[in-house]
Amino acid sequence: MFNARYFRTFITLVETGSFTRTAHRLEMTQPGVSQHVRKLEEYLGKPLLDRQGRRLVLTESGRRAYDYALKLFAEHEQFRHSLDNDSLESGECRLASPGSVGLMLYPFILGQQQMQPGLTVSYSFAFNAEIVADVLGGRHDLGIITEAVRHPDLDCKAWHQEPLCLVVPADFAGNGLADLMGIGFISYSGGEDHAVALLKANFPDFRSMSHFPRQGFTNEVSMVLDAVARGLGFTVVSRVVLETSPWQRQVKELSLPQPVHETLHLVMRAGEQMPRRYVRLLEGYCEQRRHERFGFGEGPERHEA
Fold first, then answer.
1. Is 110 helix (H, G, I), strand (E, B) or coil?
2. Under 8 Å between Cβ of 134 and 122
3. Where is the HTH lysR-type domain (predicted)?
4. Cα distances (angstroms) measured from residue 106 to each of 94, 130, 141, 197, 252
5. What are the residues whose beta carbons fall under 8 Å from the beta carbon of 27, sequence distance 6 or more?
6. pLDDT tens digits along 66-122
7. Which residues partner with 252 through β-bridges?
8. What span, in angstroms and rounded, lies between the C-alpha atoms of 125 and 106?
9. What pLDDT, in 10s, does the model give residues 190-234?
């Protein structure tokens, strides 16, 4: 008969290497420890330990049983915490976002995990379509995407906004469309849409990105400013990308009169309630961004939806 206590005793015995220490840690007697191990061996039908004097050596079946037991109890804890949607300090967080969002959000969440060891984090970097598919398939509880999506099995709502930045090489001396055309555009996944939105709002004579020489492309947004720093062209990125880039001192942002923001959206399976631990993480991140951008005063009006 399956008994989880036998597996727990076996784990402790392997970790301590001693029946005496196992009995002390689990507040049992040594005969009780021996009985649990014997019952587990009978249940599995295999010897788990090779007793060489006072030394305990795992058999091959013992090694496999130990690995299985560790996985069993880890999954049990994750499952137990996942049932507690009211917990702020424990449970598994399974989420995904594009790289441009995760550059700052993922380190923030890891910091929260350090302060709340009961949290576990599974964070994936992916494109919008992949994130939506994984949320639908139950592989993520929450997705953060840069474009709203409509699907009968999903709930999608605006969450947070970040300014778009026109970024040029540090020695760039121009300020008009003709100057930007002269150095060309460095693109990335979604980059042209960002460029169109920002340039259209700030340059009345802007018509199309087809007028700009395309100087390169990367599917990794965190790398796009490397090309700009080398003087190969300009780009338009979220402020998060600029602030986290190792090349931020080798490029500069052109000041523009009309701000344009990228709106981030939260996507979950329809009808599900967001656990409180997610709510606190998301609110905490937005609060940190406000402090970083505006200081600790009241600041300008919030952009978050």
1. helix
2. no
3. 2-59
4. 12, 18, 15, 27, 25
5. none
6. 999 888 887 776 666 556 666 777 788 899 999 999 999 999 999 999 998 888 899
7. 168
8. 9
9. 999 999 999 999 999 999 999 999 999 999 999 999 999 999 999
